[in-house]
Amino acid sequence: MSVWQRISDFLNENNRTKLAFLGMFAASVLGGAWTVYTHFHPAPSQINEDVIKEQRIEGENFLNTGRYDDAKQIFEKIIKASPDDDQALWGLKIGLPT
């Protein structure tokens, strides 16, 4: 008996139904697991953006309280991580002594 004949015999009507059910079950389990994983493990770019947002707020607070050197350090750190950050560039400009 050839391999193709064995596969054909295995895939009779009863086994096809069972295999389809198992395939749908496996796809559902994998899809659910992926959804849970991505919910609890955000993408690195999202984590980076959250950190930058917190640092931006901290730098603005330093500017508002007159702590210009601390604000400058924070904004320089943000610009190092994200060179095109307009808010950090503006905060750095504001914080420079005239």
- Broad structural category: mainly alpha
Strand share of the residues? under 5%
The chain-level mean pLDDT equals 83
Approximate helicity band:
over 70%
- What would the principal axes of the Cα set say about the shape? rod-shaped
Count of individual beta strands: 0
* Discrete helix count: 5
Main beta-sheet annotation: none
Low-confidence stretches: none
For the terminal residues, how far apart are their CA atoms? Answer: 90 Å
The Rg value, from CA coordinates, equals 28 Å
Q: Looking at the chains present, what oligomeric state does this protein adopt?
A: single chain
Question: Which series of helices and strands comes N to C?
Answer: HHHHH
Structural description of this entry:
The chain is rod-shaped and about 85 Å long. The longest helix has 28 residues, at 13-40. By secondary structure, it is mainly α. The model has no long low-confidence stretch (mean pLDDT 83). It has helices spanning 3-10, 13-40, 44-64, 68-81, 86-95. 83% of the residues lie in helices and 0% in strands. It is built from 5 helices and no strands. Helix 3 (44-64) packs antiparallel against helix 4, helix 3 (44-64) runs parallel beside helix 5 and helix 4 (68-81) packs antiparallel against helix 5. The protein starts with a helix and ends with a helix.
